[in-house]
Amino acid sequence: MIPLSLCDWPGRPCCVVFLGGCDLRCPTCHNTELAWDMERLPVVPRARLRAFLAGRKRWLSGVTVTGGEPTSAPGLGEILHEISLSGLPIKLDTNGMSPDVVELLLAEKLVAELAVDVKGPFVQYPALTGQATTEDAARRNLSRIFALAEAHPGVFHFRTTLVPALTEDDIAAVRAMPPAGHTLTTQAYKPPRRSHALADSEARRTAGNLVD
Ligand code: SF4
Fold first, then answer.
1. Atom 6 of ligand 1, nearest CA residue
2. Which of 71, 79, 80, 185 reaches 20 to 30 Å from 105, CA-CA?
3. 22 C-alpha to ligand 1 centroid (Å)
4. Is the CB of residue 16 below 6 angstroms from any atom belonging to ligand 1?
5. pLDDT of residue 30
6. Angle between helical axes of 135-151 and 99-107 (0-180°, round to 10)
């Protein structure tokens, strides 16, 4: 968890809750421990999250839930419900490969905004995701996400990370993918967080203040 972020939810000072696990294997993943090796990272007990939100909510304008891939996390609805009890709105980051989960979260009014990663043109999804999905599956899933975006104006935001494999033509193609009325922002490719996350975990373990 990051107690305060001024960039994860543009316009809203928020805290960031990271959920481990991911259904993709992007070779350029910026958060590999969370995605594939979450057992190595410190766990925030639910009571601590609850106490943190109760104490800080008046300084925050929202909670960003990210990963990894949050829609892969067991008990996601329960976790979001717990956060929503603070009264803070929730933004969820997702790779868009689980439209059923996204649809359910919208129906349950558990998320106020969704930021969806569009990895690249559909044909490049196998390469961009470590062969974890196919072109057809990516097209099918994101098409459903785009339909949900059309049905929920102002809720979805789309973004693409400028990984080295994407050409100028790819980026132009990706910008045309979201439905009318939705823009796609690009973001610079960041190096992995691995060293910072593990250093933090190891420091906490050394200090003996980690509760798993
Ligand atoms: S979807 Fe995100 S968290 Fe999952 S492997 Fe790709 S970059 Fe990493």
1. 26
2. 185
3. 6
4. no
5. 86
6. 20
